[in-house]
Every structure is written in structure tokens, then in C-alpha cells.
Amino acid sequence: MNLDRIVAALCCVAALAACTPWAQNRLPRGDWEVTAGGTVHGTELRYLTLVGAAYDEPAAPAAERLLRFLDEVGPAWRMPARIDTYVFPDRETLHALTGWDTNGRAILAHDATVSVHAADAHEVMHLLTTPTARPLRLANFWMEGIAMAYTWPEVYFDEATLSERGLPPRLGAWYGKTVHGNAQAARERGDLPALAPLAHGNQAFLALPDGITYPAAGSFVTFLLGPGHGDAKRIADFRLFLEEANRAPDAAAVLASFERHMGCALSEAEVAWHAFLDGWDEATAE
Known about the structure:
The chain has 286 residues and is of the alpha/beta class.
């Protein structure tokens, strides 16, 4: 059976399955094969593609980019025994075989990702950083902030485009701007959200456009951890905060945990972040 017939046959089934609670933990349907991969720091990366599908980029170089990414950032975070990356040729096929209307998603229960991007380090970063304890209560602001801070250039811009646009490789970029540039623009427009409502729960986060919340989260976490993410002690403290925040029963407990592990109140960190954004020069970002 060719790919088009598989997609057509499974489209309705996948759409119905996606409505059930367990669908969020299901691996994608389809005829998959491991076409590339490798092992780094004890983690096996398997790069899976659909049999018979046409891809814009060969599997080997995309998998190699993910392996380099894991080699660089993995040791500071959680390295699963194996990571499976299911790569789709397009968004429509992903939707048909999973029921999810998205470009990518981390399937935490299986240490796996689905994506239309050849080397989606953003989704892989969720596997490294999201607390494993369930239920998962950690706010999207923190989870997306980490992934944004580490991975936007690796996901969406190749080295030639980064060089052409003059984008630094570790600040994160979206629509031709760094996360700081996007957050700065939102602040100048008066659209930058306050952090306290985003620190616990997702109602406030989901009520705002992705074009505001994602760069803001990425900018704040990048500012919090420092450029290049080389401060091992800072990352260790932040990891302890994330674990506590995931168990926190309310916003007050999250704020108390932040102050305990990060050395200042969230409100104080927010003021310092705003001052940083006010002085940010996008044109000379390094």
C-alpha cells in the first residue's frame, strides 16, 4: 500500500483517537524505518522516516545535526536511554497519522518526538528538560522557554541562513529576530506579558498569541541561565526549581521555589530582564 492510501485510510481513525486522553502518549501510525542515527553520551538516537515518502533533506545529515546538538547540551540535562525522532514529510501527513494539527510534538511517555522539521532539536529538548514525575504540572512558560532558549536556530535555520542573516547561534531566532529582539519589540508595543500569571498553570499562556509567549519565554530563560548556557551551577539550580515547580500545588509555591533556587524573587528577575531588553541591540547581537 502506498503512502497516499495509508494516509487516507488512517486519517479518520487518527482524528478520533486524538480525542481520547491516552492519544497524547501514542506513537504515530504508519510504516516507519530507522534510516539514520547514532549514540552520544549513552543515548541512542534513532531517526525514523516513513517508507515510500519523499523528504526535502536526507536523513543522515539531519540526524548528525541532532547528534551534535545532544553532544553539546545533553550532559547538563536528562539523557534518556533512547530517543526516537519520527520525521514527517509535511504537516498534512503528520496530522493524518497522529490526529495532531501541529508541526511537532514531544511524546514524553516514549522519549520520542514527531515533527515535520528534519532536525527538530526543539522537541528533542523537551525530552531532556521536562520533569518525568506525573502528573505533569509544570507550566508551558518554563517548558517552552527552555526549548526556545536552546534550539530555535538549530530547528529553523541552517548555517548558511544564520550567516546570511547575521544571527548568533545560541540566542534563538524566530521570524528573523532573536528571542530577545522579539521580546524587546513586544515590550515596546506594550504587549510583553507579566511573568507571575505565566509561572503556574497554562490559562494565561494559552490566552496569548504564540508569537508573544514563545519568544518571551525563550528570552527570559536565556537571560536567566546566561548566554551560551555554560553555567553548570545555574542550570543545576534551575533544574531543581523545575522539579519543585512541577509538584507545586499553586502559584505561591512556584514563586517561593523560584526564589529559593534562583536567588531572587521572580519579580526582581523580571525587572532585571526588562532592563536587559531595554538595552538590547539586535543589530549587533553576538
